[in-house]
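thought: fold this chain, then report.
action: predict
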Amino acid sequence: MNDVRNLIDPNGRPVTRADLAADLRGLGLRPGDVVLVHSSLRSIGWVAGGTFAVLQALQDVLTDAGTLVVPTHTSGLTDPAGWAAPAVPEHWWPVIRGEMPAFDRRRTPSEHMGLIAETLRTWPGVHRSNHPHVSFAAWGAQAERVTAGHQLAWSLGENSPLARVYELGGRTLLLGTTNCTSLHLAEARAGTSPVTRQGAPVNRDGRREWVTFEDWDYDDEAFEAILADFCRAYDVQPGSVGSARTLLIDQVSLVDFAEEALRRAG
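observation:
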């Protein structure tokens, strides 16, 4: 309750679905766009209708011809050997690997992706990619294409929703946040990160299995600086959606720029 009260400005007014749609159009979001959204609901301010209003505003602007994509990652399904926040005792690892429920793209909730992404995950007609760690959910004309064929290994590379957004000439919307998963596609293409072995519980032929697979040891430490450099180089200016500082970025240009930057650094 205190968090909600802190968003109320007695001298202002609630943010509405129409306000949000107008702000998104002012940023340059268009009907038919394919857009990958990272979001912070709190940063927008007090929204009449909350997450539903935000999603409806995005859909109003994109129309049925557009496609809305969000990350619905599930870090709690990773190998417990790599957990650090918090770590668990080593003698727990076999129990967790043996008993953790398998990822179910219809029912497994996302973790740490925000209320807007988690709400879209449950939206009628939404597709979700079948990856136990880094799934994405999508609504709209290209939703099935974006989410199909998400490869278990090399999870954010060429056989991932990130690459599908790239090939569709998509955009990235950073709504009140600088978290930007698209940069992991650049990281995968640059090939500068070390290789690791991951594990996850999955369903195969109706049976739960713990499987292991190779992946990059993804690291976003340099991403904030790369994003800032890109915005300077391409003169990308932030706008506002409600009270949220927001960036709308061409994903292809961003990924290409970041790949080159990572290769130089790496």
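thought: worth noting. Residues 183 and 223 are 7 Å apart (CA to CA).
final: tokens above.
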